[in-house]
Design brief:
69% helix; repeat
């Protein structure tokens, strides 16, 4: 077995311990050891290349004479042709042309094709076309090479004309024309050429299927796939990628499972498909399966997808392991397009590990890549370092919508609303996402009227709101019980939106339920073609919050019958319903169902609901015992719950007193606890204790927060605190409302 040792690499301010094989050349990491440009040349070949590079033609001729083998003229031609091919394929096209011109052996069509291919591969089409025209004879390879070069350069009309004039065509020529048309986004003509092909091979079918799959025309790709005589692994992989590209991940995975000989491209295609569609956990699990069962080594594309998956799941430790694997394999040495660096910057920014993200940006990223700027800005916003985010924003060579909305969201997140509005004012292009960001930011800062102003202004500028825009507004309307606004928004959607998605329908149901319009909520809920746990929870919570326990439990039973899995919020709603209605047995039964059957760990709020259920049934001792067995038995909210359910009778006074004193030890300024204990002492004629506690409140400066209510009249919100007197305008409105109701 290979020996392994641990090596600690300092990276971005943190250390990563990675297992490194002793036979891995760590000196090549990050390109610290230059790779030879001439890996396949002999000494004489290298010397010849030097002479040709420096235009020492006389020395080159002499050296070539020495290098040429004896024997027939044909063998000398073959040798010179092989050198032309080697030089041109290695990127030394000018040297290859000099060799082509001075070679003493006779040049044949193969030699010409080698030189022509060199010009085409490096995109020098002018020289390629000149050489093509001067060729004494051409074969199908010559024509096909020139055809591919023109098509790859986007000169598709010239490529089509050349194809028509070809005196001889083989399956490779036909394939080149099909591929050229596909690459130039002319899929219809590509299909016509494909259909006219006298003979098709696997490459023909694969090119056409991939062409359809790559642009999301998966049904046409599937039709061809079903017609193909013998699909290979590449065909299956194209279909997997195509299905994932259009979001049909389940069908893509079904295709993947049917691939017999999976290679790294097949595995990577499915892993990437999971990642780009947000199935991050499935992507990681499939990678583990690949490692465990296939023996296939990951390539750079595999690890890039894993980096994004780790970012999506916030698996920072696993993300560092992925990065370490990239270091071990020296993948950043070959990061010619910067995709590895971009994926790592995105990953570390998502983790909030900004020193590592910044290190990668400073050392390995092209500083003109806008995506990397956006990732860093988002990362600094996420960790609350708005100063560095703004520095990057100002330093960015260009800015797109993501750049602007990221920094605007950052200002909203720390409450700097004016700065966010200032930036929005200077934003050069305001799309629906930018407007939604402004609306969301104002709502997050409890500025609902301003949010509505931006929504109306958005409509004035002709920007069509997103479903997300309406969802955010409905959430705010429901939280503040602004029913009139909610109805207006709902009516606007009905008139302007072609249809409702599930998220939007859920937000409308939730809004009506929170506003107490349960009949409207039920009407929309009953018309929904599909429901998820959020749909069911919205209805259950709506009934529970308005004291309709039986209706809440009926919806819960219907949810169970629909085989929708309840979650912790579902049980919190039904427990709350049981608490309000005093349903002791049903409440305890549901709590047991939650923990024992559905395996949901009870949270603080679930346990508070159980305490309320027990307390309202007069089971004070049971409530105290229940709390004693909980890990958060000293939590202020839990102690406040047992104190709150304690009645004025002597039986609960001792429990209330113990809980209240413990609560005041933990939270000495808790006004509600002081007031409730005072009231309990007064009810039980413990006036001395009541007097001492009220004196203590005065000494400590404890004041009870007054109760608050609000009402919307004529489109304005009027807020009242306990003890306030009505202003004349509000008093007049209330009197007029009272008169109209009585009338």
């Amino acid at each position: 077995m290979r020996g392994f040792y641990l090596k600690s690499l300092k990276f971005g301010g943190s250390r990563i311990s990675i297992a490194v094989g002793v036979n891995v050349n760590l000196l090549r990491l990050f390109g610290s050891q230059p790779v030879s440009r001439y890996p396949t040349f002999t000494t004489s070949g290298y010397q010849l290349l030097q002479c040709l590079s420096k235009h020492r033609i006389y020395d080159a001729r002499n050296l070539l004479d020495e290098m040429l083998p004896g024997g027939t003229s044909r063998s000398r031609t073959v040798y010179c042709t092989s050198l032309v091919t080697k030089f041109s394929r290695s990127g030394f096209v000018d040297e290859a042309r000099l060799l082509f011109d001075i070679m003493p052996a006779e040049r044949n069509v193969v030699t010409y094709n080698a030189m022509l291919s060199g010009y085409v591969q490096c995109g020098r089409l002018k020289e390629a076309m000149a050489l093509f025209r001067e060729m004494p004879e051409r074969n199908v390879i010559s024509w096909t090479s020139m055809l591919s070069g023109l098509a790859d350069a986007g000169r598709i009309d010239e490529a089509k004309l050349l194809f028509v004039n070809m005196t001889e065509k083989n399956v490779v020529s036909w394939n080149a024309m099909v591929v050229g048309l596909i690459r130039n986004a002319d899929l219809e003509n590509a299909r016509l050429v494909f259909d006219k092909m006298p003979v098709k091979n696997v490459a023909s079918w694969n090119a056409m299927i991939a062409g359809y799959a790559d642009i999301g025309r998966i049904e046409e790709a599937r039709t061809l796939f079903d017609m193909m005589p013998d699909p290979n692994a590449l065909t299956w992989t194209s279909m997997v990628s195509g299905y994932c590209r259009v979001g049909e991940v389940a069908e893509g995975y079904n295709m993947f499972q049917r691939i017999r000989d999976r290679n790294v491209i097949s595995w990577t295609s499915m892993i990437s498909g999971f990642t780009w569609n947000g199935f991050y956990e499935e992507a990681l699990l499939l990678f583990l399966e690949m490692n465990r069962t296939s023996g296939v080594a990951p390539n750079s594309e595999t690890l890039i997808s894993l980096a994004y998956a780790c970012a999506g799941l916030r698996f920072s430790e696993l993300g560092r392991q992925v990065h370490a694997q990239m270091l071990i394999q020296a993948m950043q040495c070959d990061d010619y397009d910067g995709r590895i660096a971009k994926s790592l910057i995105y990953m570390y920014s998502s983790f909030g590990t900004m020193p590592s993200a910044q290190y990668l940006f400073d050392n390995f990223s092209d500083d003109s890549v806008l995506q990397s700027y956006n990732c860093l800005i988002n990362g600094y916003v996420r960790v609350g370092d708005l100063e560095k985010a703004r520095i990057l924003f100002d330093a960015a060579p260009s800015r797109d919508k993501i750049t602007w909305t990221s920094i605007i969201s950052g200002y909203f997140s720390v409450g700097l609303v004016l700065q966010a509005c200032h930036l929005f004012h200077y934003m050069p292009f305001k799309d629906e996402i930018a407007w939604t960001t402004m609306i969301t930011g104002h709502i997050q800062n409890e500025l609902f009227d301003e949010a509505m102003h931006f929504f109306l202004e958005m409509r004035t500028f002709g920007v069509i709101p997103l479903s997300t825009t309406y969802t955010v507004l409905f959430g705010a309307v429901g939280a503040m019980a602004y029913l009139d606004h909610g109805r207006s928004l709902h009516g606007m959607i009905i008139k302007t939106q072609p249809g409702f998605d599930l998220i939007l329908e859920n937000s409308v149901v939730s809004m009506y339920a929170k506003c107490g319009e349960l009949r409207d909520a039920c009407k929309i809920f009953s018309r929904m073609t599909s429901r998820d746990d959020i749909s069911w929870n919205s209805m259950i919570m709506g009934f529970a919050h308005h004291g309709l326990a039986n209706e809440a439990l009926q919806v819960f039973e219907a949810m169970m019958e629909s085989r929708t899995r309840p979650n912790s919020l579902t049980f919190l709603a039904v427990l709350s319903a049981c608490s309000h209605a005093g349903l002791l047995d049903k409440g305890l039964e549901l709590f047991t169902l939650m923990t024992d059957v559905h395996g949901i760990q009870p949270g603080l709020e679930h346990c508070i609901s159980v305490v309320n259920i027990l307390g309202r049934a007069g089971k004070f001792e049971e409530a105290e015992k229940f709390i004693a067995g909980l890990p958060f038995h000293r939590h202020p909210a839990m102690l406040g719950a047992i104190l709150g359910v304690s009645g004025p009778d002597k039986r609960s006074l001792g429990i209330a007193e113990r809980s209240g004193k413990l609560l005041l030890e933990i939270d000495p300024m808790n006004a509600s606890a002081h007031v409730h204990l005072c009231n309990l002492y007064a009810s039980n004629h413990h006036h001395l204790k009541e007097y001492k506690l009220r004196r203590e409140m005065v000494v400590k400066g404890v004041k009870k927060v007054p109760g608050c209510s609000w009402i919307v009249l004529s489109g304005k919100v009027h807020m009242f605190l306990c003890g306030d007197s009505l202003n004349p305008e509000a008093e007049e409105l209330l009197i007029s409302m009272s008169n109209s109701c009585c009338g």
